[in-house]
Amino acid sequence: MALSLYFLVLFLHLIPSVICQVKEFVSIDCGGTSNYTDPSTGLAWVSDTGFIRHGKAVDIKNPNGDSPQYQRRRDFPADRNKYCYTLSTTERRRYLVRATFQYGNSVSGDPYPKFQLYLDATMWSTITVLDASRVYVEEMIIRATSTAIDVCLCCATTGSPFISTLELRPLNLSLYATDYEDSFYLAVGVRVNFGALSKDPIRYPDDPYDRIWESDLDKRQNFLVGVAPGTESISTSKNIKITREFPPIKVMQTAVVGTQGRLSYRLTLEGFPANARAYAYFAEIEDLGTNETRKFIMQQPLVPGYNNVIVNIAENANGSYTLYEPSYMNVSLDFVLSFSFVKTRDSTRGPLLNAIEISKYVQIIPKTQSNDVMTLDAFHSMPPGSDWIHEEGDPCIPTQWEWITCSSSTPPRITKLALSEKYLTGKIPDKLKHLDGLTELWLDGNSLTGSIPDISNLLNLTIVHLENNRLTGPIPSYLGDLPSLRELYVQNNSLSGEIPSTLLTGNLVFNYDGNPELIQGVQHKKNFKLIVGTSVGVFVVFVVFILGSLLLLCNLWNMPAQEKSNDKCNSLHTISKPSTSYSLVHGGSLMVEGPDVAYYITLPDLEEATHNFSRKIGKGSFGPVYYGKMKDGKEVAVKILADASSHGNQQFINEVALLSRIHHRNLVPLVGYCEEAHQHILVYEYMHNGSLQDYIHDSVDQKHLDWLSRLSIAEDAAKGLEYLHTGCNPSIIHRDVKTSNILLDINMRAKVSDFGLSRQADDNLTHVSSVACGTVGYLDPEYYANQQLTEKSDVYSFGVVLLELISGRKPVSVEEYGAEWHIIHWARSLIRKGDVMSILDPSLAGDIKIESLWRIAEVAILSVEPHGGCRPKMQDIVLAIQDAIKIEMERQRNYTRCSRSRTRQSPHISLPSNSLETDISNFSGGCTVPSAR
Length: 933
What we know:
With 933 residues, the protein is an alpha+beta fold. It folds into 5 domains: 23-171, Jelly Rolls (Sandwich), CATH 2.60.120; 217-365, Sandwich (Jelly Rolls), CATH 2.60.120; 370-523, Leucine-rich repeat, LRR (right-handed beta-alpha superhelix); 599-685, Phosphorylase Kinase, domain 1 (2-Layer Sandwich); 692-889, Transferase(Phosphotransferase) domain 1 (Transferase(Phosphotransferase), domain 1, Orthogonal Bundle), CATH 1.10.510.10. It is built from 16 helices and 48 strands. The protein is globular and about 100 Å long. Mean pLDDT is 80; it is low at 1-20, 523-532, 550-596, 761-772 and 901-929.
């Protein structure tokens, strides 16, 4: 009677909650043409036409089953854009988000799709279709961080992105609360109902939260194998008292028992290894006799401190037919999970299991800063009807909107706003001032009116284009005080008033033509100053011309004949060689003067510095390299061009021209150059510790780089390449990224070198057409095939470098890789099997955090994708490396903290005898934190 009363109270308590939740369910039929009620569940489904503007509805050929939501799907273009559904949420409320994918039979014979699924800026899953009839289900448990979430599809490797259904289910009470939910989502790995009565999954209405509990009778490939002999299914019709995570009573009414004393299973966990939240659900549903007991321990997986804990279900749950749910709130699990329960010697019955649920921690990637998004929304509202305003999802991640450029910081910031000729009308939004990370502003060629708004706090602005609009009012004086401003274009507007004197100093490019009401200084003094200035200027030019001519004649008359013939380098910033078809002179000057510009060094000075080129320290694609020490004590590396052909001359020109205009701490700086006596010479900063290749492959002295050092080197090199791709205008493509071109200074900081093959990209082009150049093993196959060079070619090469850092192996080796011959094929096959440890350099074994290794392995494999559009950008690679560094540094800090803790505490761990409901991190002194890959 008491039990019946309890269930009546519980039922009455849950009814309002369940009814309210069902009303809040969102069930979207992607590609559906109408709204309907599913007869099997009673849930209302809606067409996705009100949620998305893009893609096309496709009828499924021979759909799996009669479910109306799987009669169609929505396909999206296989391009560089992302396609997103926006779902309304309540901030800080927990939800189950579910996306399903059924491809159906392909009549055309096209390859099955493979693409990426994102939740906001967080990578959710890679959808890989292997069976056209199968429904692929992805579930994520989140605590909403705002009033809406975006579910996005993008980056197809094969085929086109598509989706069948999208569902949002609110979760009440404290379901799935973890200590890590501010930083991690939970991606559901498996949710299994053991002892199921049929192959059909259990969901709503049996589960009021509409979770899907897969049947253990569903014999899908790699799902629940290795079953122990004597395993039998049992069931009951009696009610089960449930608490905590509230699994459905129907799930708890069935179970499997090990009649021969053991229960064992093996299953594949997609997306693992990873840190996980794992629950086991137990309820004693057999009526045991007075002298009968059911006691068992977990034999696998081996979790220190847990394997010797005895489970007595009735005792742990305070009675039979009552839920007991031991949990592992943070445990590291492998790709293939083997688990087994074994009865104790004094037990009369074998182990029992009703259900399990395992979810992977997925680290939340921050979205673009909210102030930046608010500003973009203001621009969105300006030109109704334009296609560019309909881009969806986060502006920066996973792919950037067409009209912006983002930083690699966390969270991303908007660094460039490119809205030239977008038919903008009205005033420039005042919210522009919130984009304080902005470096370039392009609003030219529109119909903007009003005055220039206050953007005085945008201290990073370097380029401002406001020309060819209808702007009025004065030019704000603060523009001349912006510390980074280099170019300002306001021509062809209706600006008026006096031009601020700070803009006329000559320190920046400033164009203000086509504004007839703009004046320089006080008008009544203008003509007088013009007349006086012109007269004085003409006189000075005349005097300088006469004196210069006389001096030149005297020098030519007195110059020895040999000196006249050998004078090849006659200026600090120019090179004049009429005999060559290449010239570094452009507009009368090689480069703009500045404190960091490479300077000309005479050949005698270089001969003295290198002791007549006596100490050879290397040889690259450019030619031999010699050690030198300048008169001021600066150590240098002197490279002499070995190739005297026109191609070699072009390499020389490339390096001087490129390196003289770029300066970054992760790029080897050009100290100087020389071109005389038929020699082409480049002088670089000397890198004391050689190249990364020396440490990985060619080390005679067995130099050893630990994992954190390798990550730091990778971060430095990635930042150097990121600067070339995004920090230069136009961007620069290196074309020869490899370990021998990553050099290490005296402090072991990495710098990218050897720009002889580099090419500048045109801002108006998506690629540069050129004959494929580079190094075997690092060369992008897509670039080799079509000669279309993009930044993603450097990404591919850097992906090979990352695999070398992980494995310590060379890129190409028949001896090491056999028929696969290349590190990519070898590593990819092992990583896809979840066996990342097999590619690890043996010298690193036992001294590395597996999560950190996985983070680098995954970004490396993405970087060497055959299709460039599916590779990440360098800024994404930088973020991944920084994530790995954080994980590894946390491991080292925890190791130090735990070592100190163990010296203070007893080595024996006392466990509660009646419960496993403890966060596993409690047994390691707080030294285990979830880390997602």
